[in-house]
Amino acid sequence: MKSPALRSTRDRLLGSIRTIASARHAGEPSYITDGIYRDGQLFRFACADINERYQRRRIEMVIAYDSSALTLAAPLAYFAGCGLGVIQPSSRGPLLDLHEIPAGCRLLLVADILHRGSQLASAATLLRQSRGELVEIVTLLEVAEAKGAQRLAPISTYSVCSLR
To answer: Which residue from 143, 72, 156, 71 is spatially nearest to 114, judged by alpha carbons?
Structure first.
């Protein structure tokens, strides 16, 4: 069972997320997590939660999905003592040279938000082509009703907080 302090912090994380009307999908909200990054305590909690989960999992490279996830991926790579790369959405192509990833390299894909999961699925496919081993996809926020984690199965996912 989660302590009241932990529940309170996760509630504060969710409270700092803004929603706006989506420019791409009419009637569907877009989620903005910049409130977490601007609040030092919330950002520290999110980083500590992720670092605690992965500190003993032998991650060899942290891959940020797009530059928006770089803010979350960089501290994780620093504390894990591993490399850091960025992979962009397919329209812009990867910034990461996938051929430079050694075979069997344990990869962690970091994204800001897990919504529908289709873009993260394409990034996971690219990372699998690199011969690396994708350990998990970690996000700051999961929109549970969109069922993105189910679409990514059998790839394991972890989110700091979940919007139900």
So the answer is: 143
